[in-house]
Amino acid sequence: MLASIGVSSIDDLFASIPASVRHTPDLPPPMSEIEIRRFFGALSAKNANARDSAFFLGAGLYNHYVSSVADQMLYRAEWLTSYTPYQPEVSQGTLQSIFEFQTHICLLTAMDVANASLYEGASALVEALLMADRLVRGRRRAVLSLGIHPEYRETVRTYFQNLGLEIVEVPLGADGRTDAAALADAVDEATFAVAVQSPNFRGVIEDWSACAASARSRGSLFVGVVAEAASLALLSPPGDAGADIVCGEAQSLGVPMHNGGPLLGFLACRTAHQRQIPGRLVGQTKDAEGRRAFSLTLSTREQHIRREKATSNICTNQGLMALASNIHMSLLGKKGLREVATQSHAKAEYLKGGIAAIPGFRLPDSAATFNEFVVEGPGPAAPLLSRLARRRILAGVALSRWSGSGADANRFLVAVTEMNTREEMDGLVAALGEDAS
User: Fold this and answer.
1) CA distance 402 to 382
2) Residue 9: other Cβ atoms inside 10 A
3) Tell me: the pLDDT tens digits for 294-347?
């Protein structure tokens, strides 16, 4: 092969990579398949994970249960082989699943239209804001709450910096919610969109109605952002609060954590805005014989159709993840989804009470939370979390990861789901107390 392409060695293939960043791994001698499985199994066993640890990590990725029935259904040949929806006559299964996923999202968000899914929550927010920019012409400013996941906001900055669009960030108040007065002051005649996440990055439930009113007062569109989609089964939906566009991460609705991906973004809007929604929309119709059928009704972003007029060149339908989510939500149903949300909230409240009673620890945010909350300890959070991790207690995520040292140095974010047991929560409280003393 080297001779055929005209090089003398494998090293020549990597000559374009600077030597300063090249690294040759110290690999063991060749192994059989049995030996390789044992080798990587031993490496994997060194990792702490949600199966063999008390797991309280969140910050945008949540440990919800996905049944074995959902997994088995996902891998049926009817789903896996009927992938491309451009040929509706041979992909009715995929089209029906997408239609049902869209319906689930509309019901949960109280919106009129949902697309066939997006990459993940961060790019979903970008798509929502770009959509708002197309709908509100002549304005170049988006107002974002600092309660939006910091990595979502960073993704928005990455896209906006080359589009001539401006971002104004609004701080959180002392109670952990977006500062209502600061938000109202930030919105002006140059603002095309206001985006607020609820529950926000600190787990606090926002007043979406007030935020939407601030946007509407200046003719802007309001974008509701959701990173913990399980909350939609319990909290008042953004559509009822006046949201024009709703976007976020649907991983909690049937997609395992997958070591960080792939995930599942979603985007929904009002009927009046559907022509500007990126991605695919599947509709229900009838075939020539009068039977129920499904078709790709709108495909506004597709380059093969619109080319330079495509509404987006970055979004795509996460087909397999949307299918997994649809199966999961269909199996749980309305009552099951609400039970997941109710348990997650109730258990978080139980753990909050236990941690608040530990000398030296406090909960800095006074506003209501869903299943995630900030804890402030007597010392730096990162070393504390490392000590607990060695005891197989993954107690939370240090906020210094995003804000650096300073006001958040002693703070960490704790998430609770239906997967956490009372014994795990009591064990965390006991471990924090022992560490503090």
Assistant:
1) 12
2) 9
3) 988 877 555 556 666 666 766 677 888 999 999 999 999 999 999 999 999 999
Which helix (H) or strand (E) segment holds residue 114: the answer is: strand 113-114
Is domain 54-66+333-436 in CATH 3.90.1150.10, yes or no?
A: yes
**What's the CA dihedral at 169, 263, 254, 145 to 10 degrees?**
0
Q: Which residues contact 338 (CB under 8 A, 6 or more apart)?
A: 233, 234
Alpha-carbon gap, residue 319 to 96, rounded angstroms: 12
Tell me how far apart the alpha carbons of residues 160 and 140 are, in angstroms, rounded to a whole number. Answer: 10
Measured CA to CA in angstroms, residue 34 lies from 37, 41, 46, 162 at distances of 5, 11, 19, 51
CB atoms within 10 A of CB 311: 19
- In the chain, where are the structural domains located? 54-66+333-436, 68-329
The two tokens of residue 7 are 């090089």
Buried b (16+ CB within 10 A) or exposed e, 110-139: bbebbbbbbbbbbbbbbbbbbbbbebeeeb
Query: 292-297: long-range contacts at Cβ-Cβ below 8 A with a sequence spacing of 24 or more?
Result: 293/88, 293/92, 294/88, 294/92, 294/95, 294/96, 294/98, 294/99, 295/88, 295/95, 296/85, 296/86, 296/88, 296/95
Report the DSSP beta bridge partners of residue 141.
166, 191
- Joined together, the tokens standing for residue 225 give 């952002």
Q: Give the CA distances from residue 40 to residues 51, 266, 406, in Å, rounded to whole numbers and listed in that order.
A: 18, 35, 39
Q: Where are the alpha helices (DSSP H) in 265-379?
A: 303-306, 319-356
Asked whether the domain spanning 68-329 has the same topology as the one spanning 54-66+333-436, the reply is: no
Class of domain 68-329: alpha beta
Query: What phi and psi values does residue 83 have, to the nearest 5 degrees?
Result: -95, -45
- Give residue-wise pLDDT tens across range 144-174: 999 999 999 999 999 999 899 999 999 999 9
- Residue 76: both structure tokens together: 């049926």
Which one-letter DSSP state was computed for residue 28?
P
Provide the token pair at 397.
């995520």
